[in-house]
Every structure is written in C-alpha cells, then in structure tokens.
Write a structure and sequence with these properties.
The complex is a heterodimer.
Chain A lengths: L8 E5 L4 E6 L8 E7 L6 E6 L2 E4 L4 E4 L5 E6 L8 E10 L7 E4 L3 E6 L1
Parallel strand pairs in A: 1-10
Antiparallel strand pairs in A: 2-7, 3-4, 3-8, 5-6, 6-7, 8-9, 8-10
Chain B lengths: L4 E3 L2 E4 L5 E6 L6 E7 L6 E7 L14 E5 L5 E5 L8 E8 L8 E2 L3 E5 L1
Parallel strand pairs in B: 2-10
Antiparallel strand pairs in B: 1-3, 3-7, 4-5, 4-8, 6-7, 8-9, 8-10
The chains are: A mainly beta, B mainly beta.
C-alpha cells in the first residue's frame, strides 16, 4: 500500500501562501493523488486531484515532481475560513487480483491566524 | 439531487449490541466507500463497493464488521457485538464511476459504545 506522510500541523497568517507536502514513496504507477479538506463535524470535501506535473483550479494548485514520490498542495492567500484539516489521498493501490485499497494520510491541521 | 446522506447522525449503544449504519449515496453514483474516523485521527478506509460488489473486504477491522449494498444504491454497515473501541465517526462517500473519481462525503454517523 502507498503509505503517506504529512506534517501534523501548520500555522499561517492570513493572506499568505501555504504549501503542504505529502510524501508517498511507494506510490504505484496507476495511483492518483487527491487532496481533501475537512472542517470539524463535517465529512471531507474534494480540493484537487493530479497524476503528475502541475494542476491548478480556482481553489488550489497541486505540484507533483517527476518521480511522484511526493506532492505539494498550495493554497494561495489563505483566509481564516481555510482553517481545517487537509488530507492527502493516494490510490487506488492493488494488493492482488481484484483487491483495492485507499490510503489517506493522517492529515495536516492548518491554523490560519488573523 | 441531494448529497450523500447517512443515518442515524448519532448512535449510542451498549457494549455487545449490534448496530446498523445506513448510507444513501448520490443518485447515479456507482461507487460507494466506507471510512472510520476515530477522535482526532485520520480516515481509515474500510470498504469500497462498485455497484453491489465489494472486491476487497480486507480493510474491515474484524469479522464483527460487515457491509452490503443493494440495488446499486443504499449501503448498510453492520457492527455486531460492539466494543468500546468501535466508537468513532463512520463516514460514507460516493463517486460517479470509480475510485479515481472525486468522492463526495456524507456528514457521518457518530457512534458511541458505552
């Protein structure tokens, strides 16, 4: 399984750019990298997904180096409402014929300070 | 239509009792996922359905856990002989086609085993 590692927490001031890196050293060829945001007492919400290089949407950018062993979620000009836990998801990972697993990181708690 | 719904939203039970947790995915979504999130922890993948079929049940924590999906829609996660360590939030998600698609999460069922 593609194990992921993220920083446990990060602090940032409002208006700054925040970069959260996820390590996934044994990512498989057919694995995608997806980032989710979770507010307290809510289910996670999709932010962005990529396979390689750079992906950008209206909310964030995702940078994936050529070896795909890590990925970086970039949040431009964060606000207080961006305070949440951010999860990196790598998957699917096949462990055998017909087998399927999804591996979430433990999440990074981002605190935005006024 | 509406998003993913889960019921009950909260469940308190006594150790040794059986519980059933229900997930109604977004209409038309063929893939359905169950996760468990213990207090202050990340998401633990439990099981994935493609249609009514679960190709890999190895993520279920023990043989007290079972899940089924009928009619390609509603899914039920059953925990038999509940233990205190089963206390957690159980999250359900669905996606349009399969595992590489964006997952839409429900609000979760908060289970407390006394």
């Amino acid at each position: 399984l593609a194990k992921t590692t993220q920083p446990i927490s990060m602090d940032s001031y409002e208006g700054q750019e925040v970069n959260i890196t996820c390590s996934h050293n044994n990512i498989a060829t057919n694995d995608y990298i997806t980032w989710y945001q979770q507010f307290p007492s809510q289910g996670p919400r999709f932010i962005i997904q990529g396979y390689k290089t750079k992906v950008t949407n209206e909310v964030a950018s995702l940078f994936i180096p050529a070896d795909r062993k890590s990925s970086t979620l970039s949040l431009p000009r964060v606000s207080l409402s961006d305070t949440a836990v951010y999860y990196c998801l790598v998957g699917p990972s096949y462990s055998g014929a017909g087998s399927y697993q999804l591996t979430f990181g433990k999440g990074t708690k981002l605190s935005v300070i006024p | 239509g509406a998003g993913v719904s889960q019921s009950p939203s909260n469940k308190v039970t006594e150790k040794g009792k059986d519980v059933e947790l229900r997930c109604d995915p977004i209409s038309g979504h063929t893939a359905l996922y169950w996760y468990r999130q213990s207090l202050g922890q990340g998401l633990e993948f439990l099981i994935y359905f493609q249609g009514n079929s679960a190709p890999d049940k190895s993520g279920l924590p023990s043989d007290r856990f079972s899940a089924e999906r009928t009619g390609g829609s509603v899914s039920t996660l059953t925990i038999q002989r509940t233990q205190q360590e089963d206390s957690a939030v159980y999250l359900c998600a669905s996606s349009d086609l399969g595992y590489q698609e964006t997952q839409y999460f429900g609000p979760g069922t908060r289970l407390l085993v006394l």
